[in-house]
Amino acid sequence: MDELVRLVVILLCVPILSVSGQNAPPPQLQPRPIGPTATPPVATDRQIMLDVQVTDKSGAAVRGLQKRDFTLLDDKQPKPILSFQALDNGAKSASDPTVEVILVVDAVNASSQAVTYERNELKKFLLRDGGKLALPTSLVIFTDRGTRVQDGSSRNGNVLAELYDQYETGLRSITRSQGFYGASERLDLSLKTLTSLVAYQGKRPGRKLLIWFSPGWPILSGPNIDLSRKDQEKFFNLIVDTSNSLRLARVTLYSIDPLGMSDAGGFRTFYYQEFVKGVTSPGRTLPGNLALQVLAVQSGGRVLNSSNDLTSEIAQCTADGAAFYVISFDPARADHPNEYHALGVTIDIPGTTARTRTGYYAQP
Known about the structure:
The strands form 3 sheets. Strands 1, 6, 7, 8, 9, 10, 11 and 12 form an 8-stranded mixed β-sheet that branches. The protein starts with a helix and ends with a strand. The chain has 8 helices and 16 strands. By secondary structure, it is α+β, with helices and mostly antiparallel strands.
């Protein structure tokens, strides 16, 4: 267990992605060497910004709401909303110039058969409506041989589909692919890649919808996993850093399981729910608190599984960028470092549901 924690700490401190050329035509998938990545910028006014999805009972976006319709709860206590903005169809403004979609193909945590099926479904999505995409979209191919990131984004799904065809997704080839050590290696690679992607996105303005196609990386939590106090403190710091980075970069994370109905009702489709609640102290920390599905829920995203229609699931995720609301508030002054605060947003209209980040870590 100590070895797992040591590997995760080291790998998260040394990101592998260094991305450039946001608008460089034509888009290309580029291998990225190991190297340092800049940390996400911190808001100088200390305000926390939240992207809020509001839907009706059918799941359709609710438009036209006003600031007075929203109630922000910080640890169940009402909090003043300092700023409010309604964004429709990814409309650009001075404060929110872009909404982008990043599609991550995970060939490390899925079998070759699952990756092939996922590849076909993803291409169907890109080619819908004659290849006209509603939002700028880019591709990331994640394998244990390296991670390839598209230079720039495009609304032309035909171009992206052709680009995807040019790259043969690598199959998993981790030496110890079975058992605990193989699982720990996949966890290391996955968290390292996520951290690097979020760090890069933090240097860019606007909101990002990061859609990760994977059954999830290993959770490595259970009755046989016992962390020392020192290990718990390390994992807690990783949880805090990941939560802060996702929030500051305005990344909403989504998990789509490419196993579809073959995984329906399986243990992995619901076990993550044991770890969704925010971690308040190192003593309550487990590796499962860093699971893909857990981070997706906590970022305000979605976990989609047990369906063979991946194309529709992708569309459901990207629809979040069509219409949403942006609010901000002053964080609470904490009594101690990394004090967890649960967040909630309610709407004063019957039949509506608001989805946003589930919490944040306040500082003294």
